[in-house]
C-alpha cells in the first residue's frame, strides 16, 4: 500500500517590523534586535514518506536553485542525519513567495520541511532541537519553526514571543535580488545601534538599519518605497528588496494596490502572530 501524500503544509513569509544591527561578532555574523511577524502569504508543500532514503523535490522553481543548494532538501537531509531515520521523502513545492526579497521564503520552506517530516517520519524531536538544526541552515529558520511572532536577538535565534497588532500590509517586491551576505559585508552598513530593552523597542517608532544602504544601492527599492510612503507608513523588510506599507483596514490596502504602477509587483496580506504552520501541525 503506497504511503499517502500529506498535503498543504504552509511556509509563510515573514516581515521584520523593525531591524536593528548592534555589532559584528568574531565569526562575522551580526548581533541583531528584530521583530518578526508572519503574513498570510505562503509557499505550499506536500510530502510523501518513502522507504528508501532518497530525497526527491518537485517544484515550480526548478533551475533557479540547484537541488544541492535547496534549503528544503538540505533541511530534510539534516533531519535524516540527526535522527538516523532510514526512510526518505518525495516533496512537492508550490513556490509563491518572491525569492531573495527579505520575506524569508527559503528559510520558511526549510522550517516547514523540518516540522512536517519530524511528524511524518515519527522522529518526534522537540521544537528546540528542530530549531538548532534549522539555525545551522539559516539565521531566520528558528522563528519559523517556533511559529510565533517574536522579538529576536543574537543572529535571530534568541526568541521572545510578542503579540503586536495584526494590520494589513501592502507588500511590494521590486525587481531586484538583494544578497543578504552582500548587505552585511558592506562597510557603509550601520552596525552600532545600541541594544534597547524590548519595552522601549516596542513603544518607539520602528525602523530598519539596512534600509538607507539598500535604498541608495537599488533604485527600484527607492522607487517602490517612495511610492508606498504616499499611502502608508512604510519600510523595508530584512535586507530587502521587499518593502511593506501598514494599513488598519484591508480595504485601504486593496485600494492602494489598485493604484500600484504597472511595472511594480505587489500583494496584500495580513499580519499573523501565530504561523499557519502551527495550525496545520495541530490539525493533521
Ligand atoms: C537579515 C535577516 C533578518 O531577518 O533576514 P533576510 O533579509 O535574510 O530575510 C536574517 O537575519 C538573515 O537570515 P538568513 O537569510 O537566514 O541569512 P543567512 O543565510 O543565515 O546569512 C547569509 C549571510 O548574511 C550574513 N549575516 C546573516 C545574519 C546575521 N545575523 N548576520 C550576518 O552577518 C552572513 O554573512 C551570512 O553568511
Ligand atoms: N526553497 C527555497 N526557496 C527560496 N530560496 C531558496 C530556497 N532554497 C534555497 N534558496 C536560496 O536562499 C536564498 C535566500 O532565500 P530566502 O530565505 O527566500 O531569502 P530572503 O529572506 O531574502 O527572502 C534565495 O535567494 C535562494 O538562492
Our estimate of the beta-strand percent is: 25-35%
> Based on DSSP secondary structure assignment, what is the total number of beta strands?
10
Shape: globular
- The chain-level mean pLDDT equals 95
- Mind describing the biggest β-sheet? 10 strands, mixed
Helix proportion: 25-40%
Poorly predicted sequence stretches spanning 5 or more consecutive residues: none
End-to-end separation: 20 Å
* Tally of alpha and pi helices: 10
What does it look like?
The chain is of the alpha+beta class. The protein has 10 helices and 10 strands. The protein has helices at 71-83, 105-120, 127-137, 141-146, 180-185, 198-203, 211-217, 219-228, 250-258, 276-281, and strands at 5-24, 30-50, 55-59, 88-94, 150-154, 158-161, 168-172, 234-236, 243-247, 266-272. Strand 1 (5-24) and strand 2 form a beta hairpin. Bound molecules: 4-diphosphocytidyl-2-C-methyl-D-erythritol 2-phosphate and adenosine-5'-diphosphate (ADP). Residues 65, 69-72, 99-107, 109, 140, 180, 238 line the site of adenosine-5'-diphosphate.
Write the layout of secondary structure elements.
Blueprint (H helix, E strand, L loop, with lengths): L4 E20 L5 E21 L4 E5 L11 H13 L4 E7 L10 H16 L6 H11 L3 H6 L3 E5 L3 E4 L6 E5 L7 H6 L12 H6 L7 H7 L1 H10 L5 E3 L6 E5 L2 H9 L7 E7 L3 H6 L3
Helix pairs in contact: 1-2, 1-3, 2-3, 7-8
EC number: 2.7.1.148
Pathway: Isoprenoid biosynthesis; isopentenyl diphosphate biosynthesis via DXP pathway; isopentenyl diphosphate from 1-deoxy-D-xylulose 5-phosphate: step 3/6
Function: Catalyzes the phosphorylation of the position 2 hydroxy group of 4-diphosphocytidyl-2C-methyl-D-erythritol.
